[in-house]
Amino acid sequence: MNLSPDQIVFHDFGFVKLNATIVFTWAIMATLVILARMATRNLTSEHRRSRWQNLMEILVTGILGQIREVGLKQPRQYLPFLGTLFLFIAASSLGTILPGYHAPTGSLSTTAALALCVLVAVPFYGISRQGLAEYLKGYVRPSIVMLPFNIISEASRTLALSVRLFGNMMSGAMIIGILITITPFLFPIVMTLLGLLTGMVQAYIFTVLATVYIAAAVRST
Amino acid sequence: MLIDWFTVIAQAVNFLILVWLMKKFLYGPVIEAIDKREQRIARQIRDAEEEKAKALQEREDFEAKNKDLESRRAAMIAAMEEEIAERRSKTVTEIREESESIRQRWRQSLEEEKEALAESFTSRAGQEALATARQIISDLSGATLHELVVAVFLDNLHKLDAVARGEIMSRISHNGDPVEVRSAMPLSEPDRQKILQALEDVFNEGLSVTFEVDESLVCGLEVRSGGRRIGWNVDDYLHSLRQRVDQWMAHETGSGNPDTK
Fold it and tell me: Is residue B261 part of a domain?
């Protein structure tokens, strides 16, 4: 039994390996882009609009609302990054209903990559908002003594983000795999439903935590 | 090992590509559409507010105009009523004046008619009375009325008082005024002789006497000289009769005149 889709390698070029994680990520990317393209192909600014447009508008405005609620005053600036984070993780979870599918988020490499992106995005937004000096001063507040703790906190939360998501997704897939061998009928389906729920919750948690970190970085002191 | 570093890098790149793609195909267009709609709604609201303000302004204008019109109408009605009253009083005055003048004319024509009637009555009465009297006298005495007239005239001449006689005589002698004998009908020669004789008896001899016919005397005889008149004629009686008739008519029309009511 594979703990991670990384171990399913379709083609090996030495360091470069085309594994299931990358392949399913591409599939998700393609699906999201195609859906987005289809939904936004006939956008209109009239009062009457298509159901797809309505759905997309609800999605976008919902994400914007969430970002604003966390405390970012100009949510549009952060929408592409945070919104895509949510949609990607949610889509990865939703895919589990398909047989033979392996969620890319069930790979620690993927969650680590996402957590690293957040790790980079936080200072990026913080610096672009406050300037480098002001951002760096945040690490020595309220005193220089706090500097190591702040750095540790930065590293540990990245680790926590990646492991939390990986653990949840992997455990879900693992439990279903184990249950299939014990009780092949019914119960795995219930667990799949539960897995969908936890996948959605994890997508939400991951995105909200990333938002909170960015909000903390850009807040002027 | 759970982490494959190549996969981490690949996934990070994949994720960034996805961010870019989603921005291009989802967030960008959707946000643009929402913005456009919001702008349009805002524009519509603004337009609606402008329209409303305009409508309010127009309503105020209309009300002001209406009020103005109302006041002007009231003023015009008042002016019209005043003019009507003025015209009515003027017309009433005119009608009154006209009726007054009509009444005056009516009265005048009535007077004239009365006059003419009296005139004709006098004339007719004179003629009738004369004819009747002539008939009566002729029937009673066998003499003509004319002879009686001459007799009465001669009697009157003889009865003339001294003062009148003296005055006439002085006028005849001083001024040389002629003595004029006027009669209603031509006198016969014996009558003329009688009258000449009587005049010479009363006054002096050598008088220049002329005889003339004057039908207005109706029936009678008179002598005129120097503004004095001696004589007798029916005209005098008729004159007094006419005065009585006039008095009677005045009484009758006076009692029947609506003006006096």
Answer: no
Is the predicted pLDDT of residue A141 greater than 90, yes or no? no
Pick from B4, B8, B15: which is nearest to A88 by CB? B15
**What type of residue sits at position A123?**
P
Rounded CA-CA distance A220/A212 in Å is 14
Query: What is the pLDDT confidence band of residue B246, given thresholds at 50, 70 and 90?
Result: confident
Chain B residues within 8 A (CB-CB) of chain A? 2-12, 14-23, 25-27, 29-34, 36-37, 40
Indicate yes or no: CB of B32 within 8 angstroms of CB of A43. Answer: yes
Would you state the torsion angle of the CA atoms of residues A45, A51, A55, A58, taken in this order, to the nearest 10 degrees? Answer: 50
Residue B42 domain-assigned?
A: yes
- CA A57 from centroid of its chain's CA atoms: 20
Task: Please provide the DSSP assignment of A73-136 as one string.
Answer: S-HHHHHHHHHHHHHHHHHHHHGGGSTT---GGGSHHHHHHHHHHHHHHHHHHHHHHH-HHHHH
Size of interface A-B (CB pairs under 8 A): 126
Q: Is residue B174 assigned to a domain?
A: yes
ipTM entry: 0.90
Which tokens sit at A44? 């209109």
Q: Residues B105, B23: one domain?
A: yes
Residue ranges making up the domain that contains B246: 143-252
CA pair distance A200, A194, nearest whole angstrom: 10
**Structural domains in chain B (count):** 2
**Which of B148 and B62 is assigned the larger pLDDT?**
B62
Question: Min CA distance, A141 vs chain B (Å)?
Answer: 31
> In what helix (H) or strand (E) does residue A12 lie, and over which residues does it extend?
strand A9-13
Residue A33 contacts B where some CB pair is shorter than 8 Å: yes
As a whole number of angstroms, the distance between CA A61 and CA B27 comes to 10
Among B7, B16, B44, B45, which would you mutate to test the A interface (most chain A Cβ atoms within 10 Å of its Cβ)?
B7
